[in-house]
Amino acid sequence: MKSITPAPLELSFSSIETYNQCPRKYYYNYVLKLPKGTWPWLVMGTFVHLALEKFHKYDIYFRKRNLYINHSELMKKAYLSAKRIYRNKLYVKGKINPDFEITEKQLEQSKEILSNYLKKVTKNFPNTIYVEKGFRLQIGPYVIRGFIDRIDKLGDILYEVIDYKTSSKVADINKTYQVSIYAYALKKLLGQHIKVKTKLDFIKLYKESTGIYEDHKAELIEKYIIDAGNSILKSKKEFTKEEQWKYKENSFCRFCDYKNRCETSRDIFL
Asked: How many CB atoms are located within 10 Å of the residue 232 CB?
């Protein structure tokens, strides 16, 4: 009888960052697969992401057919489409799905964010070629997967990957591997000859953090993924009890989906 080769551990930037932030949070999320909480700002952030995805997909559709584009109308259409999707997914078997429970105030805030975004991009409208581009790559013994919010073509071999952020604080692009992983993935998808720029677009704040992707970072990205995979796999093999997964106190603890369970297991309330 042939032995069955186990499936490789699948990673994403989010899963790696979760493990680095707090191994126990990784355990709750990716091993036990416990349900997540619902946070109002995430509901609105996801809504804005969806509206922008629709907006650029409409733009790509019309440009490919050499049809006239009114960007204001496209954004209005994208907003209404996102709103309709949320309304259709709000109820599941007669019960409210909190992931799609967006308030009128949040919808108004979303309109303002989308309006400011439209003003910015219409000054020099991007040549967007992909939206929510998925990738799944084998890196050593592991698989890294994800979705890229937007990919623009800037020249014959020059591209830019953009990741939207709806946070209330600007982060330094050089302190995250996220868009570097996306740039690495794009080169794997389109060819090593291309050049890729990177950008974090803080759409709520009307600010950006940009960087340039350099070829020599490929080895660092692969090392980052493999090292993370090794640490996670080691933990999954060695830790058989909840308390063995170490918790790390950090600034995100009070927003953790598993805060109550974690604190109870640590006897904080006793």
From this structure: 23
Which is nearest to 150 in space by CA: 176, 117, 172? 117
Beta bridge partners of 201: 164, 208
Distance CA 245, CA 267 (A): 15
Residue with tokens 């809504």: 47
CA distances from 49 to 54, 194, 201, 226 (A): 9, 27, 11, 30
End-to-end CA distance of the chain: 53
* Helix segments in the chain, DSSP class H: 13-21, 23-26, 40-64, 71-89, 104-123, 178-190, 218-238, 259-265
pTM: 0.91
Closest CA to 75 of 99, 43, 106, 110: 110
Q: Are strands 10-11 and 142-153 parallel, antiparallel or unpaired?
A: parallel
Query: Using one digit for the tens of pLDDT, what is the confidence trace for 221-233?
Result: 999 999 999 999 9
Structure token pair of residue 64: 């490919």
> C-alpha angle 253/234/173, rounded to 5°?
50
Residue 25 tokens, joined: 């949070």
- Span 90-135, pLDDT tens digits: 998 888 998 999 999 999 999 999 999 999 999 999 999 999 999 9
Mean per-residue pLDDT of the chain: 91
Residue 16 CA: distances (Å) to CA of 178, 182, 256, 260 = 10, 14, 16, 23
